[in-house]
Design a protein that fits this description.
single chain, 708 residues, alpha+beta, Jelly Rolls, Immunoglobulin-like, five-stranded antiparallel beta sheet, four-stranded antiparallel beta sheet, 25 helices, 47% helix
């Protein structure tokens, strides 16, 4: 009897959602086809960015197993020093990827990565379908709108050329935001308000750039809708539900967004964004390739491809044709079907969003210099094509109905699917890669700029003995050249580094230990050590091994700090800068209050237990500063020493800032947890509690209404 009842329930459910399930199945099959270049489960394509994201999926699983929720710290990135990549970069895609990896594809993070992307295809297309159906009242047109969205050239570029995992997932969430925001405005219903706020939260914690520009794009759409409806039944109260939903979305994501806002000025990526005008990236988006009917690089090259293989941003002729059809019908005074008239304000708004986004992507005029620097976060103008995608997809469904009117049937659907999919085919690159999942699992790291973007940079205010000195200037920017310094540790010859002065009772000695590329020296050479441009010591370069002690207390001082520089006296065989790999660069001779027990010593006395880093460290009289294997972030860590909360401060280890503690001689038990900003956590927690209570209350009320 129970089996028969269960069968009856499942059958009734399938019957009531039959159409939606069939449409989802169609989208699922098309999505599998569009993921053709990623068919292998062993060889990773594209290269190299997906390896970084797949590595983060692996680390997200480790973070979940530690007990992290929400995800904050990448457990093995940056030597395992608790790098908060998830706290500052993205959370939702890696959380879903980790859950899939743990419970569905436990031996292959690449399969989990692909399954999350496939879901993004599905969700994005389905919600474009739902919104389009609500606007144009044509199932065929709405289905084609969804397919045009998932087949958009830039969507495929993000997945197959850039490997922009988080941005691709954001492109799947964006239509959800759009649908529920419009429903929230049109109906004011509480369920749409709650779903709208949840979708804004998901977008914010997935990809901040898409979140910011979606806010602007929906703002433009809302303004056009307001202009078109202000005299025909518009009420100011309609604006309240979507505004509340947006604010609620912010509060739900407060623990994530506010640290980004407050800390970005001191994070490496913050300096990069503020100094990089997107206008100078427009060489990637000339108008001719943007509107090309096939995938073309922005400029001729020896290989016939762009510098990033397959990255050929374009609008796509499906969207261009749809925009042209709608413009023609709108401005040629042709009669629009009655059932479309109520949707006209939204579709005219889509026309303007499409045009503005396309212009911003291509613009020959540097309007960016007049905009707030915060909007430079987009970095590349081609990212704005995301808003060409959703507006173009809505216009596609509208254009289909305008052309065929009431004559639309299944034949048009089949032919439309073929045309859209075939038109997107040039943006599916031939896969080229030798990177394997097996190799990635051995070392699942993000690497490169992703490992540097969210390092906290604090100026050196105290000269510590025993701590490794920076090898880069304080204003360094993330990139491959910077990554080379982090990995290969070259001494930057000719660059001046400024250090705080020592106390009167100290006689600092600078130790330089490393390896010289002696075979590249022509004749004899030496390093001249300068203080504010004046030499005070010379290091002869006569052997491969370099080990020199520099009495810095003899250096001429002309200000309130020391400007130290190493200058090569001599020449090299290849005319390039001489390579000197630094093993150690540190001061000695400081007072015990400024002597550090360095991280390579303390790391052996520390272990990870869940989300806590536990250390047991013994100090003697000669050093009172402990440098922990934990990256420094002000107010975002809790540190207990012998069960007492303690203040911490930054101590440099090369170009990392690590947690420093001032302790008395003896043995101390230390526990450290990364928790983010406490007050933002409380605000988000209380908002989530209210959100859950409101959702449960609404659910119970609906159940009671159904029963009554």
């Amino acid at each position: 009897m129970k089996i028969w009842k269960s069968y009856h329930t499942v059958t009734a459910f399938l019957q009531s959602y039959k159409t939606n399930l069939l449409i989802l199945s169609l989208y699922g099959v098309i999505a599998i086809g569009l993921m053709g270049p990623m068919a292998s489960s062993e060889v990773i394509f594209p290269y190299p960015d997906p390896q970084s994201h797949i590595g983060y999926v692996h680390q997200a699983r480790l973070a979940l197993e530690e007990g992290q929720f929400p995800l904050r710290v990448a457990p093995v990135e940056n030597h395992g020093w608790r790098y908060p990549g998830f706290q500052f970069y993205s959370q939702v895609p890696y959380l879903f990827g980790a859950l899939v990896y743990k419970f569905i594809t436990p031996s292959n993070p690449y399969d989990a990565y692909k399954l999350v992307i496939w879901t993004s295809f599905l969700v994005g297309a389905f919600y474009i379908y739902r919104l389009s159906l609500w606007l144009i009242h044509s199932q065929t047109g709405a289905i084609l709108a969804g397919i045009s969205y998932m087949s958009a050239p830039y969507f495929l570029n993000n997945i197959h050329a850039r490997g922009a995992f988080t941005e691709a997932i954001a492109q799947g969430i964006l239509p959800v935001v759009l649908y529920y925001t419009i429903q929230c405005y049109a109906t004011g219903k509480r369920r749409y308000l709650l779903m709208s706020s949840l979708s804004w939260f998901l977008l914010a914690t997935t990809h901040i750039i898409t979140f910011i520009y979606t806010t602007l794009a929906i703002g433009i759409l809302s303004f056009i809708v307001f202009l078109k409806t202000r005299k025909i039944g518009f009420q100011w109260s309609q604006l309240l539900p979507p505004v509340i939903a947006y604010g609620l979305g912010w509060l739900l994501a407060f623990y994530f967004l506010i640290p980004v806002v407050l800390m970005s000025g001191n994070l490496a990526v913050g300096k990069q964004v503020g100094g990089s005008n997107p206008f100078y990236s427009r060489w990637y988006t000339p108008l001719s390739t943007l509107i090309s009917p096939t995938s073309l690089p922005p400029a001729p090259s020896e290989t016939g491809f762009a510098p990033t293989y397959g990255l050929h941003p374009a609008v796509g002729w499906i969207f261009l044709a749809a925009w042209g059809v709608v413009i023609y019908y709108h401005y040629s005074s042709r009669r629009v079907p009655y059932k479309l008239q109520s949707a006209q304000p939204y579709l005219i708004g889509s026309l303007w969003v499409f045009l503005i986004a396309l212009f911003a992507t291509w613009s020959p005029v540097d309007f960016w210099k007049f905009l707030p620097r915060q909007l430079w976060v987009t970095q590349f103008t081609f990212r704005i094509l995301t808003h060409v995608m959703w507006s173009g997809a809505l216009l596609t469904g509208y254009a289909v109905v305008l052309i065929f009117r009431q004559r639309l049937d299944r034949r048009h659907l089949v032919i439309g699917i073929l045309i859209i999919v075939i038109a997107s085919r040039p943006w599916l690159p031939i896969p080229r890669s030798t990177a394997t999942v097996a190799d990635l699992i051995k070392e699942p790291l993000f690497r490169y700029s992703g490992a540097l973007d969210y390092l906290y940079r604090a100026p050196m205010t105290t000269l510590y003995g025993g701590a490794e000195l920076p090898l880069l200037p304080l204003d360094w920017l993330p990139g491959y050249a910077t990554w080379d310094v982090f990995i290969n540790r070259p001494l930057l010859l000719g660059a001046e580094f400024r250090y705080p002065l020592w106390q009167n009772n100290e006689k600092p000695i600078l130790h330089l230990q490393g390896e010289v590329d002696i075979d590249n020296i022509t004749g004899t050479a030496s390093l001249e050590v300068q203080s504010d441009g004046r030499p005070f010591d010379t290091i002869p370069l006569t052997s491969r091994a370099l080990n020199w002690a520099i009495p810095v207390d003899r250096a001429p001082i002309f200000g309130e700090d020391l400007g130290l520089k190493f200058v090569l006296k001599g020449s090299t065989n290849d005319g390039q800068m001489l390579k000197i790999q630094v093993d150690r660069l540190f001061f000695e001779g400081m007072s015990p209050a400024r002597m550090v027990i360095p991280v390579f010593v303390t790391q052996n006395s520390c272990s990870q237990k869940g989300i806590s880093t536990l250390c047991e460290i013994t100090l003697k009289e000669d050093a009172q500063i402990v440098q922990l294997p934990i990256l420094y972030y002000p107010q975002m860590l809790k540190v207990w020493v012998d069960d007492q909360l303690m203040q911490y401060f930054p101590v440099n280890h090369r170009d990392h800032n690590l947690v420093g503690l001032n302790l008395k001689p003896g043995t101390h038990k230390i526990r450290v947890i990364f928790h983010g900003l406490v007050w933002t956590n409380w605000i988000s927690s209380l908002t989530w509690l209210g959100f859950i209570l409101a959702s449960v209350t609404l659910f119970i009320q609906n159940k009671l209404k159904i029963r009554s």
